[in-house]
Amino acid sequence: MNERHNLSSIRDILTVLFKHKQKIIVTFLVVVIAITLGTFLISPTYEAKSSLLVKFGREYLYTPEVGEGRPTPLAISQEELINSEVQILMNHDLIGKVIDTLGVNKLYPGLSTFSGVSKTDAAINQFKKSLIAEPVRKSNVIQVSFQHHNPDFSARAVNILVDLFRQKHLQLYADPNSSFLTEQLAGYSMKLKDSEGKLEAFKQAHKLYALEEQRAMFLKQRMEADSADKDAENRMGEIDKRIGSLQSQMRVTQKNVPVTSEEVRFRVVDDANASLLSLRLREQELLEKYKEDNRLVVNLRKEIAVLEAFLKKQEHQTPKVVTGKNPVYEEMEKEMVKANADLASLQSRKVSLKGQIALIDKELKDLDAWSNSLATLTREVEANGKNFATYRARAEEARISDIMNREKMANVTVIQQATIPTEPVRPRTGYNFVLALILGSISGLGLAFFSEYAGQSLSTPETAGKRLEIPVLGSIQHKG
Questions:
Q1: Is 127 within 8 Å of 97 (Cβ atoms)?
Q2: In this structure, are residues 311 and 273 in contact, taking their beta carbons and an 8 Å threshold?
Q3: Are 74 and 62 in contact (CB under 8 A)?
């Protein structure tokens, strides 16, 4: 039964094909001829292509407006970067400049415009329909293509657009603060010179050249003067003791001595007085170093007691003699004069040292008072110098960037310029011919089956049975 059914279906199809073979052939030929004529009658369209490489360079670095921050890469992905460049490339203004360069009438001579739309805008819209700019997958390359009936115009349009795009790219990513940086640099240069002048004038006015060294020098002078003052005070104390000792000795020493025939006896007395004086002075020196119960002091006092007893015994033997000036007393007077002179000199030195110490203290106080002003002026010079150096570096970078922009040194490189195409991309003759055959065949067969199933006639007994839903008992062949 299945085999009979399959044979019946094939026979039905063949019956329909033979029945409507004229329609199929005519439709096939009409479609093929129409597509073929259209292929040869349509104006050929040429496509010019160019490739651009977008490198991650100076345009995509963020530089802080102020401060010393170094340029850092922008927080954008490679895909975002490439898409941004594609949007710049498809910019309305760029396309308008390309059309103006080529001429709207030459580019689209038969362009019709709508009400309210200028011819240039209509040409831009038409240009965008023929323009394709898309990134190459997983790369930094942008493929730009443009289709036009004139091969020369297609290549020129792409190359002009790419050139304008590179200029636009530099313009958009150029540092707009170049003039601002130049003005700020000049301002900070003046501020730096002014602050340096104030600092130098302040140093000249107060004779400040090396503050710490000057403070150290004054402190050293202060210590030396204070040490000299204490030394003078100690020496004055020693001289006071010496003067007191001399006064004591002069009170017990005869001012006059005999100068008669008993010269020998008085010479012995004089020698004894001289020795006594020497021992007294020695006693004072020992008392400065040792206590009174020291053995050296005790022995010395014993010697002094012996001499004093001898001199006292000699005093009771007073012959009537002529007296004269005691040389020992004269020596004591000389020592007293010298001691008083030394004391006066030390007192004068002490007064001078006190004045010197007061002057040094004043200088140190002035240094402390001036150090704040000097520190403020120094910080101002350092701040202005730092700002000047920062803006000088930024201005130099901006100057170099401007030079690179004028030289069109962008990070967008043309891998391949558009060349004049030699073969059109439309119409494709071979493709259209095959398409015509396929469409002609489909159209002819479709028309045949449509005519068969849309008509009222029955082609075969089986069709009649299916249509009328009654069994077919027999069939009679009709000969026309």
A1: no
A2: yes
A3: yes
- Please tell me the distance from the alpha carbon of residue 281 to that of residue 303, in angstroms, as a whole number: 13
Burial class (CB in 10 A: 0-12, 13-18, 19+), 292: exposed
* pTM beyond cutoff 0.85: no
What are the residue ranges in the chain where pLDDT is below 70? Answer: 1-8, 12, 39-41, 56-76, 112-116, 173-181, 209, 211, 257-268, 314-325, 394-410, 452, 454-470, 472-480
| Tally of CB atoms within 10 A around 364 | 16
Q: Taking the domains of the chain in order of start, what are their residue ranges?
A: 211-386
Enter the DSSP assignment of 460. S
Secondary structure of residue 114 in the 3-state scheme: coil
CA–CA distance from 28 to each of 38, 262, 287, 442 (Å)? 15, 184, 152, 8
What percent of the chain has a predicted confidence (pLDDT) above 90? 3
Return d(Cα 65, Cα 339) in angstroms, integer: 80
Task: Tell me 52's DSSP state.
Answer: E
pLDDT digits (tens, 9 = 90+) for 309-324: 777 776 665 554 556 6
Q: How many CA atoms lie within 13 A of 155 on its CB side?
A: 11
DSSP 153-186: HHHHHHHHHHHHHHHHHHHHHS-TTHHHHHHHHH
C-beta of residue 35 within 8 angstroms of C-beta of residue 436:
yes
User: Are 51 and 417 within 8 A, CB to CB?
Assistant: no
- What's the 3-state SS for 29-45? HHHHHHHHHHHHHCCCE
- SS3 state at 151: helix
Residue 113 backbone phi and psi in degrees, to 5: -110, 155
Question: pLDDT tens across 196-221, in order?
Answer: 888 788 777 777 767 677 778 878 88
